[in-house]
């Protein structure tokens, strides 16, 4: 069973996934008006390839949609050679791409 935790800080929010007592992964993000910036997203190595990245992103998107956030902006470190992250975002509507910066449509 995977447990999610949201921790609100003044400058950003931390979303953490845990399986039992082990951290599966996390992301940090901040929002302004209708746009959200995804600052980090990490799945721990033993949990990669099991759908946790997709689950983490889906939880984040559901929360942002409830807040009527329409755009998610992120930089993909490593660009297209970051196969895992590209696999996640290529299934989403991309509004704009400039180098490694992506804007994804949420609503």
| Average predicted local confidence, pLDDT | 92
The residue fraction in helices comes out at 10-25%
**First CA to last CA: what distance?**
29 Å
Instruction: State the helix count.
Output: 2
How would you portray this structure in words?
It is a single chain. A seven-stranded mixed sheet has the order 1-2-3-4-5-7-6, covered by helices on one side. The protein starts with a strand and ends with a strand. It has helices spanning 52-66, 83-89; strands at residues 2-8, 13-19, 22-32, 35-43, 71-75, 94-98, 101-105. The chain is globular and about 40 Å long. It has one domain (29-105). The protein has 107 residues and is an alpha+beta fold.
Précis, in short:
The chain is α+β, with helices and mostly antiparallel strands and 107 residues long.
Label this structure with key terms.
107 residues, alpha+beta, 7-stranded mixed β-sheet, 7 strands, globular
Helix and strand topology:
Blueprint: E1 2-8, E2 13-19, E3 22-32, E4 35-43, H1 52-66, E5 71-75, H2 83-89, E6 94-98, E7 101-105
Parallel strand pairs: 4-5
Antiparallel strand pairs: 1-2, 2-3, 3-4, 5-7, 6-7
């Amino acid at each position: 069973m995977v447990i999610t935790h949201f921790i609100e800080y003044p400058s950003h929010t931390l979303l953490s996934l845990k399986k039992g007592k082990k951290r599966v992964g996390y992301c940090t993000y901040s929002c302004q008006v209708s746009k959200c910036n995804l600052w980090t997203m990490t799945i721990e190595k033993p949990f990669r390839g099991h759908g946790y990245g997709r689950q983490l992103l889906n939880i984040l998107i559901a929360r942002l949609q409830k807040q009527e956030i329409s755009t998610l902006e992120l930089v993909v470190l490593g660009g297209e050679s970051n196969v895992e992250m590209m696999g996640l975002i290529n299934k989403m509507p991309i509004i704009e791409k400039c180098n490694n910066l992506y804007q994804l449509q949420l609503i």
